[in-house]
Amino acid sequence: MSSPVSFSVVSSLSDGILPHLYALFIIGVFAFLILGLGSAGVGRRVIVALTLVALFVSIPVTVIFNTDPASFLSGTEVFNRFSTYFAIVLIISAIFISIPAMKRVRSKPEVFYATLLFVVIGMLVATFSYNLITLFISFEAVSVGTYILAGYGKDRRNLEASVKYFFTGTIATGFIAFGASFYYIGGAHTFDLTSVTVYSYPAMLISLVFLTVGFGFKLAIFPMHQWAIDTYDGTENSVSAFLSAGSKVLAYLITLKVFLLGFAPPLSHDVYIFWTILAILTMTYGNLAALGQNNLKRLLAYSSVAQAGYLILVIPLIAYAGLNSSTFGFAMAAAMFYSLVYIFMKGGAFLSVNLVRKENVQVSDLSGLAKKAPPATAVSLAIILLALAGIPLTGGFQAKYYLFLSLISGRLWWLAVIAILNSAISVFYYFRVINYMFWREPSSEGLDTSRMSYVPVIFSAFVTVALGVFYSLFPYLITVSHGFLGGGV
Prior knowledge:
Blueprint: H1 4-17, H2 22-39, H3 44-64, E1 70-72, E2 77-79, H4 81-104, H5 109-128, H6 132-150, H7 156-188, H8 201-219, H9 226-234, H10 237-261, H11 267-291, H12 296-311, H13 314-321, H14 327-351, H15 369-372, H16 375-389, H17 395-409, H18 413-439, H19 451-469, H20 473-481
Antiparallel strand pairs: 1-2
Helix pairs in contact: 2-3, 2-5, 3-4, 3-5, 4-5, 4-10, 4-14, 5-6, 6-7, 6-10, 7-8, 7-9, 8-10, 8-11, 9-10, 9-12, 10-14, 11-12, 11-13, 11-18, 12-14, 12-18, 13-14, 14-16, 14-17, 14-19, 14-20, 16-18, 16-19, 17-18, 17-19
């Protein structure tokens, strides 16, 4: 006799849900194919090509079969244009590092790229999920894959970074598990984030604290950030780019769902207080810590912490204004736009470390880059850094403009002022790097001027500028943003 759950699954598939899962099937098939071909001795270029085919094909498949809103397993998975947008952003983050990683990943590349594809599957499941347990399991599947990617290679720094990342991730998992248990048993009595109606305030407050700490570790916000500094510094540059960009955007999306949908009033006031304090501390600490850094990857890592502070400003804003306010659509669209720009800004910045033939790259190692490397290289890196600082005519400026404007329209202008002052602080350490590239004598360190090293940087800069002048995207995001609530948008 079939159980109600199995009948529900079969019924959902027969109602036309299966096409929404085609992208997952395609990526999974290619992942197993890559493992098999790698064991048979197929070359690295073929493996990378297959990875790119799987990822590129999954984008139109995701778009085509997720145009019409649908849900699966009583709303556990919701397919709409909002979720589809983030699915595409996360797939792009994996495409972005696939080619640059090829140069460094020499031993068993089939394991690396198959793991990357399995990570993308977990990302897509989490992107469409509105159930706390499904989010937790899919996010942990992603985490396990990224532990492997972080430790890929035999270098001691790689292994040390992976171990730190693993133990910190385990602690975060424990906090999230405790928070989820309090959320269900003592609070909401459901894991469905879109149907919380009655709950016990004390239990939900405990859940809020545990989940804030757990997801705070995943997002690398102050004071749960130190693992990110050591991990980004110790991992291969392409993996650092993926962890700081794609993995963080996923954590950001899940955090938005959990704290904005799962904690209704009066808990939303507590969410507002908690995340306002965390955003201010994270922005300020990240920028001040980056000022004194000479190690390039650690500077970028602290910059990533500061960027996380800007990203999470959307949480206190919407918690303060409300999901039904006129501010919601604009604020959520700002979060969506910032996530897309962030992939290229932060990913491109970390990939620029490949330009120096050295493990511990210092800022001074970029001295004279404008004279030693192809001319567009230094200009492109400068554009990326200016975008991170929020300088006009870049996607970074547009992202911060929309975010700060939403804060002002939501009557949190004082929080916008704090964020603007933090952006001003960041200008100093970004311009210090630019100063070394253009106005210092060339360093003695050898540069890697191969196309695989500088083309990703140039491409990142191009996309960053394009997003800065492509204004028609944002009105579309405002329309799509209401799908965040789990409806058919």
